[in-house]
From TrEMBL:
Pfam families: CTP_transf_like
Full protein name: Nicotinamide-nucleotide adenylyltransferase
GO annotation, biological process: NAD+ biosynthetic process
Residue intervals of the Cytidyltransferase-like domain: 18-225
InterPro entries (UniProt xref): Cyt_trans-like, Euk_NMN_adenylyltrnsfrase, NadD/NMNAT, NMNAT_euk, Rossmann-like_a/b/a_fold
Enzyme Commission no: 2.7.7.1, 2.7.7.18
Segments forming a coiled coil: none
Family recorded in the similarity comment: Belongs to the eukaryotic NMN adenylyltransferase family.
Length: 355
């Protein structure tokens, strides 16, 4: 690369991506999203991408098939081992309750701002004195700010329309102040979706739509279903993640997998993660071997009558009573949206579950 191009790259505004989701389990497409997004910005020559963060949602999100946060974090750690720029943030899972995505973005953005503004070496350290693992390495190479953008698939964008699931103020803050990077997914039409939303249209310049020319409809739901049927998921997920699932007997994995030779050496890394996160274990819902057909754990059932809102408190229609956690709303409401033919992408997911 010429010296001129190098110099120009140094001047480009810096961005990082954060993907919020369940990651139960993480699939290669979760990681591909980051690669596709980085390629896009680099090829456009408009920004320098300094890091990627995967932030698994809190256990109390309570979506069907959600393994414990300890297991999901361990699997994400294993999945990102092959990447030199995508990292796990376990901040969200260590909070006392489910966090809205806007708050997750805000926390990570503030942390990076404080870190950049603090004297070199001091940083805004974690309570134990060390910096969080999700912080991009090259952050302090320059002094200028790093803008954190929400990275998602088009189905997440379309979930903005699910009544009561997202607060309008949150959507506006995300698109106005952070920015959204959306990767196309089969069956979704994000351009039309943006056109039909006044808020999204208003901030269209902050939404980057990227066509994924090599689509792959692997999803965590499909992986869980195959596992629970004793079918192969090899080459659908990372080998290390698969070993972990077998070893921990997650997702109701059938005996064919359990009797396979398990290579414990591969999992040493994960033990280090779980050992270091004993606190997280306290907030766990318990050892879970769940798939689509599982019912909530006893603890969750106990909470079933408690009122858990996503954004319902501020909804003009009044608060919405959700059965267990915000994630349940996704299932309940996507069923309704299936009936109303609101979202093709969500319909596909539901169709998969009903097979
Ligand atoms: N195949 C895919 N193509 C594009 N984006 C994807 C794909 N799979 C997941 N994503 C995106 O990854 C993010 C995190 O996904 P999440 O784990 O919550 O859902 P998922 O993989 O669709 O799982 P589930 O099947 O349990 O709903 C979301 O933004 C989602 O849109
Ligand atoms: N109001 C909100 O901030 C809100 C609502 C629904 C889902 N989410 C997040 O979106 C991500 C993906 O959720 P789903 O897998 O249910 O689509 C999760 O991280 C979840 O916490 C946020």
């Amino acid at each position: 690369m010429s010296a001129f191009m190098e110099e120009t790259k140094c001047l480009l505004p810096r961005i990082a991506f954060i993907a919020c989701g369940c990651f139960s389990p993480p699939t290669p497409m979760h990681l591909r999203m980051f690669e596709i997004a980085r390629d896009h910005f680099e090829m456009q020559g408009t920004h320098k991408v300094v890091g990627g963060i995967i932030s698994p949602t809190h256990d109390s999100y309570a979506k069907k098939g959600l393994a414990s946060s300890l297991d999901r974090c361990a699997m994400v750690k294993l999945a990102v081992q092959s990447s030199n720029w995508i990292r796990l943030s376990d901040w969200e899972v260590h909070q006392n309750q489910w966090m809205r995505t806007q708050s997750v973005l805000q926390y990570h953005q503030n942390f990076m701002n404080n870190y950049l503004n603090s004297a070199a070496g001091a940083g805004d350290a974690e309570p134990n004195g060390s910096l969080p693992g999700w912080l991009p390495f090259s952050l302090r190479e320059r002094k200028d700010p790093v803008h954190l953008k929400l990275l998602c698939g088009a189905d997440l964008l379309e979930s903005f329309a699910v009544p009561g699931l997202w607060a309008e103020a949150d959507i506006e803050d995300i698109v106005a102040n952070h920015g959204l990077v959306v990767i196309t997914r089969c069956g979704s039409n994000p351009e039309k979706f943006i056109f039909e939303s006044d808020i999204l249209t208003k901030y269209k310049r902050n939404i980057t739509l990227i066509t994924n020319w090599v689509p792959n409809e692997v999803s965590s739901t499909l992986v869980r279903r195959l596992l629970s049927r004793g079918q192969s998921v090899k080459y659908l997920i990372d080998d290390l993640v698969l070993e972990y699932i077998k070893r921990q007997r997650l997702f109701n994995v059938k005996s064919k997998y359990i009797t396979d030779a398990v290579r414990p050496n591969h999992l040493i890394f994960n033990h280090a993660y779980t050992d270091n996160n004993k606190n997280a274990a306290n907030s766990l819902i318990g050892e879970q071997n769940m798939d689509e057909s599982d019912s909530p754990s006893p603890q969750l059932l106990q909470q079933a009558t408690s009122r858990v809102f996503c954004c319902g408190d501020t909804s003009p229609r009044g608060p919405k009573l959700l059965r267990v956690g915000p994630g349940q709303a996704v299932q309940v409401i996507t069923m309704q949206s299936d009936e109303k033919a609101e979202s093709q992408a969500k319909k596909q997911k539901i169709a998969q579950v009903q097979l």
